Amino acid sequence: MDIKVALNIPDCHIPWQSETNYNIMIEVAKDLEKLYGISEINIMGDFLDFLWLGLHPKMPSLMSVKETLKDEIYQGIKKLEELRRLFPKATINYIEGNHEYRLVRYIVAKCPELYDLFTLSDILQFDRLSINHIPFGRHQKHSCLGTSYSLRHQPYNMGKNCASATAHNKGISLGFGHTHRKQTYKVKRADGTEVECRSLGWLGDSSAPVFDYVDHDDWSSGFEIVYVYGDQWFPQYVDIKDGKAVCNGFLYYF
């Protein structure tokens, strides 16, 4: 029985991604593609930032930001094109995050008549790139490679113990983004079933001025690889520290 591999990409906030950390993730995935093939790529939401569509007030510090909405969309499409080119056989799922959801919220608030004219799928060219769109919302959930390990952008419970609270509240194994932190929690239920919830960190650049509004000392850089053998899944978190990561015994750095 063959091993299947999924690449789970947490929050990048393009165009304010860490290009070093993102490239490390790409290099790891390229090596895994050679070894096993990448069967599934799951973009975990907030792949783009959509800064200028946020409805909250813009702080004066943001007036120095040069990237426009057009720049952001262009860079996002280029990253999606790269993923499709490097991994032509992979199923790519775009799990929409709350930052992408800014597009819908902005249109509904400002010009609801254009609701179905400017969609995320159309703007990011999902059809052309054969990318599946998994919309943001309370029912959002995707099975990672058909296993009992589910994925969504946000945890079901927020706060500093989001992984353990989600595990006990929902009783399902779940990988999620949104928090920008690395956190894992596993518990075994009375029937012997294991429940594991995992917060997957992020791939953004914490030095970018757009993140000055929040304390980010506890944010963690990294991403997740999931190996599937039969109906069993084996997650591996790849930590990125100071532009270096180790995966399967190999050092990656830029």
- Alpha-carbon distance between the two ends: 35 Å
Rounded mean pLDDT score: 94
Strand percentage lies at 25-35%
Share of helix, binned: 10-25%
Shape, principal axes of CA atoms: globular
**N-to-C series of helices and strands:** EHEHEHHHEEEHEEEEEEE
Rg result: 18 Å
Give a description of the structure.
- This protein has 254 residues and is α/β, with parallel strands linked by helices.
- The chain has a 6-stranded mixed sheet. A 5-stranded mixed sheet has the order 5-6-7-9-8, covered by helices on one side.
- Helix 2 links the parallel strand 2 and strand 3.
- It is globular.
- The model has no long low-confidence stretch (mean pLDDT 94).
